[in-house]
Structure prediction request, 187 residues.
Amino acid sequence: MGRWAAGSKERLLTAAVELFAERGFDATTVADISERAGVTERTFYRHFSDKRESLFANEEAFAEAFLHGIRGTPTESSLLEFIRGGLVAGAQMLQENREREEVRAREAVIYMNSPLLEREHLKRARLTQRVADTLSERGVATAQAALAAEISTGVFFAAFNRWLEGEHDDLVAAQMVCLDEFRSITQ
Prediction:
């Protein structure tokens, strides 16, 4: 096992999801994950504080991509265009960095474990607040920003679930379909 082996974080992420899916979250140890990934436990702890965090490792990168999409939308844009920018950027980041089957397995592990599901809901709530804050920074009134943030994360996760279920092959396209559905019910 190489101390500074290239790609160790990615191997650990993949090994964790595989083992959690095979054995269950509670029955899988850090030693199991490290062994499967071909690294030491010390390497695991260099990347993650505990095994739970290996399931949520990309949370910050995803949120930053989503927020970057909002920030990258021209200032004179409509609120819907800000939302679209975040949806597209978040979906692209997720789809480029994870295979759908791995994401599907991760989601199944989370939904089978109440503490992990609680963590997932907290993650979504934090993302919603950060979207609201970013929209406010872009000049959107606080009340509108809060509502738009709820809508944008709601649309994202509705499309994400459809993508996981195989209803859409492309996550970005799924986001746009769900956004159009939202628009159609508000007209």
Q: What stands out?
A: The first helix runs from residue 8 to 23. The chain has a mean pLDDT of 93. The chain has two domains: 8-54, 59-185.
